[in-house]
Write a structure and sequence with these properties.
disordered N terminus; alpha+beta; single chain; Lipocalin; 8-stranded antiparallel beta barrel; globular
């Protein structure tokens, strides 16, 4: 009887292991909508304009470059590091980016992002929203 009981438990554990392996997390598919390069350009006034380009890689890395034209002078700010996504990108996911900027200073940014096709709406903690287009 003990022999059959051990075989029964072995069969149950084997079945459970296949069940657990076959149940995957669908977040990777949802977050795949974020992966790629996004660009936003906007004019603040007659003398000041910005272009932001951000790339999210599948492996959890990001790079961001902001080019500012101010009274005819061009300034470039960049940062790169890693990012995490919490939530549904279709409804508003929190993205936390951390790394280093081009001056060697720590970079930390928290934004709420909604991805709708080829548009990404990024809202910072001040409530400002920038609309990006997939490049």
């Amino acid at each position: 009887m003990k022999k059959y009981l051990k075989l029964l438990f072995a069969a149950i554990f084997a079945t459970l292991s296949f069940t657990l392996v076959s149940c995957g997390d669908d977040d990777d598919d949802d977050n795949g909508a974020l992966v790629g390069t996004w660009v936003a350009s906007y004019v603040e006034d007659d003398y000041n304009s910005y272009t932001d380009e951000i790339t999210f890689s599948k492996n959890g890395n990001f790079s961001i470059t902001t080019t500012e034209v101010y009274y005819g002078n061009t300034y470039v700010y960049s940062a790169n590091g890693t990012y995490t996504v919490s939530g549904d990108l279709k409804k508003g996911a929190v993205i936390i980016m951390s790394g280093m900027d081009n001056d060697g200073d720590p970079f930390m940014q928290k934004i709420v992002v909604v991805v709708d096709g080829n548009s990404m709406y990024a809202t910072n903690t001040d409530g400002d929203t920038v609309v990006f287009t997939r490049k």
